[in-house]
């Protein structure tokens, strides 16, 4: 398919690379930041613009990979009644695009995408559309770049987006706090990397409830007390420790 | 080296397999549960007992891989003044073993070990000992089963054990809660597995602070409000969401 990508960030870049690799033609990149747009266009071997008036009108699909709050503004600028216009956001309704086209939808990559990545991570794609024709086009497009395509309406997509916040944002924040703690205590954070890897690896085949271990689950009060004493100068760590310990114990 | 393993659980089993694979002789397994002891002995091609009186006195090293609360009891039973006696616990002082031998120490695997695993995960080993001779023996033993050996005294080991609780127990508990949420909401938890994998993969090369994304970090109040509304019937999820969102925002 011929595709115009609106946006130059992580999602635009990674989806652009995947679409390119799948043999689609990225016919233009639009970016408010002309430099970022031309850089991405150079990488994807296409042209770029930062003027709405010269956005190419001949693509099959217009992929809006911009920040959540910018989607509405872009939809107002882009009037493309017979084109497929889709956004890539987890927590934004597809209806935000209805003024832009009568063929609109969502192609949401359920993955943490970073343009600095040296590889293209496996990325489930959740799709939704205003009509069956558009849905079929998005299914074809999605299947060309992912082994896992799933239908999800606005409500289901928002729920999975919430789940993703826990599995990525919150998990990563715990790593941030623990890396800081290790630095301050003179401990080598690198020692924890195999444990982090194994925790994620195991869940690929074993349900998490079967893998739960640790002092909270064992109700090992002596160890919990020792841990709490270590966190006097780390109020964030301590609050999270107390809340999660309580939550684990209520689940047993 | 010739080793007696005291214990039959996850740590005893995985360390036994690693020691076996490294060419050491496991000369006996002791377990209070005779059946579990003979099963592990069968797997490791050695003998077993559940009587203290017949514990083999001719090993070089006695590895106590029992629950934290059982270590003291075992140390009372095992009087082996000229043998190396070590425990494998993160949150227990090495001094608990001083009545058992004058050569005692700790060999703590900083990893989540499950005997059901079909593979032997990479496992940093933290060592500590009562004296330099014992330390040298533990270093040799540790290096035979791990690429990463690190000295850590009681205080450092306890701090790393706390860090491990966050990186494994708490992270896994979030997966437990999210899997339940997905089941109740009719969502496919499997869709989140690539995201979980990528979150752990990325930290192997990129510091977690550089990977932080999401509505909390962006201070995207609209999305946060939508998420909170979804969690009315999930008080555990909601409390964790609120606390971690606050913590992420205080870190920006």
UniProtKB/TrEMBL annotation, chains A, B:
Task: Using the record's annotation, list all stretches that form the Pyrroline-5-carboxylate reductase catalytic N-terminal domain.
Answer: 3-88
Every DUF2520 domain range: 124-248
A Pfam family that this protein carries is DUF2520
Stated name of the protein: DUF2520 domain-containing protein
């Amino acid at each position: 398919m011929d595709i115009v990508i609106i946006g130059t960030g992580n999602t635009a870049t990674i989806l652009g690379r995947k679409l390119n690799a799948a043999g689609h033609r990225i016919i233009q990149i639009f970016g408010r930041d002309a430099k970022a747009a031309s850089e991405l266009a150079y990488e994807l071997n296409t042209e770029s613009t930062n003027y709405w008036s010269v956005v190419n009108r001949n693509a099959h699909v217009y992929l809006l990979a911009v920040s959540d709050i910018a989607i509405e503004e872009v939809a107002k600028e882009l009037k493309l009644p017979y084109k497929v216009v889709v956004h890539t956001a987890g927590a934004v309704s597809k209806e935000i695009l209805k003024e832009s086209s009568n063929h609109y939808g969502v192609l949401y990559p359920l993955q943490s995408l970073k343009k600095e990545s040296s590889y293209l991570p496996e990325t489930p794609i959740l799709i939704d559309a205003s009509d069956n024709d558009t849905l079929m086009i998005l299914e074809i497009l999605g299947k060309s770049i992912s082994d896992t395509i799933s239908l999800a309406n606005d409500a289901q997509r928002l729920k999975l987006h919430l789940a993703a916040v826990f599995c990525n944002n919150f998990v990563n924040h715990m790593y941030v706090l623990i890396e800081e703690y290790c630095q301050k205590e003179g401990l080598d954070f690198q020692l924890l990397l195999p444990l982090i890897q194994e925790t994620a690896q195991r869940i690929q085949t074993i349900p998490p409830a079967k893998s739960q271990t640790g002092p909270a689950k064992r109700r090992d009060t002596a160890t919990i007390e020792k841990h709490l004493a270590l966190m006097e100068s780390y109020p964030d760590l301590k609050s999270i420790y107390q809340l999660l310990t309580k939550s684990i114990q209520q689940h047993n």
